Each structure stands twice: as structure tokens, then as C-alpha cells.
UniProtKB/TrEMBL annotation:
PANTHER family per UniProt: HYDROXYPYRUVATE ISOMERASE, INOSOSE DEHYDRATASE
Protein's UniProt name: Sugar phosphate isomerase/epimerase
Key words of the record: Isomerase
Species in which this protein is naturally found: Algoriphagus yeomjeoni
Domain of life of the source: Bacteria
InterPro entries tied to this protein: IolE/XylAMocC-like (IPR050312), TAT_signal (IPR006311), Xyl_isomerase-like_sf (IPR036237), Xyl_isomerase-like_TIM-brl (IPR013022)
Entry's Gene Ontology molecular function annotations: isomerase activity
Organism ancestry: Bacteria, Pseudomonadati, Bacteroidota, Cytophagia, Cytophagales
Domain Xylose isomerase-like TIM barrel, residue spans: 105-274
């Protein structure tokens, strides 16, 4: 083989290897600079504004970059008095998905489920159940969740439970959150992890998600100021606290987390709408 031909084959081989590796290199680099393409807001964060002008407030939030909403019953139902068709039209106009709503899942569940399904929601969520006095009571709560989940499944929806800190406080040698995980049917009940509440209760949210892969599909993203001790009043704007959300979000997706919902309940030196805008900016720039 002459030198010219050998050199040609060597160059060709090198190009071949480079071409084969090129897509993987792109993927690796893309992973390094990946951003969170969609994130939501729990509308309770702007509850006063929602009470005054729900449609106008939702339009403003969409302008901040939110692509998903999670609702709540503000006294006018989960659609704030809007008809499903009206709400669906608004969402289409502003380019937002209404993924879920906190609701009283033990009253008029079929009626609420019909409304939720019509606007495209995927979940109705129990936002609060209160601390129970015994392990047996928590098992009874689990069964109520299973029944609510079965009702919602018949409407094409899913049930989820949103925790506070009380499910992360030991009771008779057991963690109430563990009891719920063990006694609810994964086919009927998902969970929305409020990462702030687990954090201030002393449980690493990422480690807890890893213990139960596939059970936590939604989460509340809110930050806690450092060195707060046991106090619950530690909420700050995203990025101003001690919770490493770039890592939490990136790794939690590996365990089945799908929806990242901002919630802000404490406002220091800001307003609810300004906080919502600042949190959207933070998440839009976060490398996950």
C-alpha cells in the first residue's frame, strides 16, 4: 500500500470515528446546558390577585414564562366561577396547561372531576389532611385516598396528596409519610412532594424521592432561608435560600418527577406578582 493511500485511509478512519461520536458529544454538551423547558405556578401564590381578576392574573403569569398552572378552590370552585369552555379557551389563548388543582377531594368529587377533565387537568390534589393521632388513623386516611383515586380514575384523572411537615414527624416509631406510601395503591394515588416542608422537617427531599421511585410525579418548588432552625416561617425567593434546586430538579426527574410547581407563601420586600416573576426568571435560567 503506497503512502498516499495509507494516509487517505487514516484520515477517513479518523473522520468516521468523529462522525460516530459527534451525536454523543452534542448530547453531552446539551445535557450540560439543559434548561427546564416547562414549569408551573400554584395560583395560591397570587390568591389576592386571582380573587380580583382571575383571567387577567393568569395572562400576566403566562407573560412571565409559566407554561403550567396548578389551581386551588378560592371559594368559587376550582375554575373560579368560569365555565370549563371559557377557562379552556383562555388557557389556549395564553399557551398554558392547567395540570392540576388543589381541591376538597371528599366533597362533590365527581362534579369537580368533570370540570377538571374538561379543561385538560391531569390531577386533583388533596392539599391538607392534618396530623393524625395514631398509625391506624393514617392507614384509614390511606384508604380514603385510594377511594378518591378510584373515583378520579373513572374520569380519566389521577389523585395526589400534597404533604406538609406533619407527615415527616415520627408517630409511634413510624413516619406518617411512609405509612401513606405503603398503604396507598400506586395505580390510584400519586404524591406531590412539597420540598420545602420536607426540608424544614429535616428530610432531604431528593433522598426521599429516591426511596419511592415513580410515586412522586409533582412537587412544590420553594426555597428556605438558611440557619432557620425549626421555624417554619423560612420561605424566600428561589435562589435566595439554601436548597440546591439545580441538583434537586435534575436528579428527581430520574425518579419520575414530571411537574415542577412554584409556590410562594412568604413575601419579604416584594409582592406576590413580583415574586412570581422573579421565581420564573430563576427557573428559566437554571441549568438542570
Amino acid at each position: 500500500m503506497n503512502k498516499q493511500r495509507r494516509k487517505f485511509l487514516q484520515i477517513g478512519g479518523m473522520l468516521g470515528v468523529g462522525a460516530a461520536l459527534f451525536p454523543y458529544e452534542i448530547a453531552a454538551r446539551s445535557a450540560e446546558i439543559a434548561k427546564l423547558s416547562k414549569f408551573g405556578l400554584q395560583l395560591y401564590s397570587v390568591k389576592e390577585e386571582m380573587a380580583k381578576d382571575a383571567a387577567g392574573t393568569m395572562r400576566k403569569l403566562a407573560g412571565f414564562g409559566y407554561k403550567q398552572f396548578e389551581g386551588f378552590d378560592g371559594g368559587k370552585g376550582i375554575l373560579w366561577g368560569m365555565k370549563p369552555a371559557e377557562c379552556k379557551s383562555l388557557l389556549s389563548d395564553i399557551g398554558v396547561d392547567f395540570i392540576s388543582s388543589h381541591a376538597d377531594v371528599f366533597k362533590n368529587l365527581d362534579e369537580q372531576a368533570e370540570q377538571a377533565a374538561e379543561v385538560g387537568m391531569k390531577y386533583l390534589i388533596c392539599p391538607y389532611i392534618g396530623a393524625q393521632n395514631s398509625v391506624e388513623e393514617w392507614k384509614n386516611i390511606s384508604e380514603r385516598f385510594n377511594k378518591a383515586g378510584a373515583t378520579l380514575k373513572s374520569h380519566g384523572l389521577k389523585f395526589a396528596y400534597h404533604n406538609h411537615d406533619y407527615t415527616f414527624k415520627m408517630l409511634d416509631g413510624q413516619l406518617p409519610q411512609d405509612i401513606l406510601m405503603a398503604n396507598t395503591d400506586p395505580d390510584l394515588v400519586d404524591f406531590e412532594l412539597d420540598m420545602y416542608w420536607s426540608h424544614v422537617a429535616g428530610y432531604d427531599p431528593l433522598k426521599y424521592i429516591a426511596k419511592f421511585p415513580g410515586r412522586f410525579k409533582l412537587c412544590h418548588v420553594k426555597d428556605a432561608e438558611p440557619d432557620g432552625g425549626d421555624t417554619h416561617d423560612r420561605g424566600v425567593l428561589l435562589g435566595a435560600g439554601e436548597m440546591p434546586y439545580a441538583e434537586i430538579i435534575k436528579k428527581s426527574k430520574k425518579y419520575g418527577m414530571e411537574y415542577f410547581v412554584v409556590e410562594q407563601e412568604r413575601f419579604v420586600g416584594t409582592t406576590p406578582l413580583k415574586a412570581a416573576e422573579a421565581n420564573a426568571v430563576y427557573l428559566s435560567k437554571l441549568k438542570v
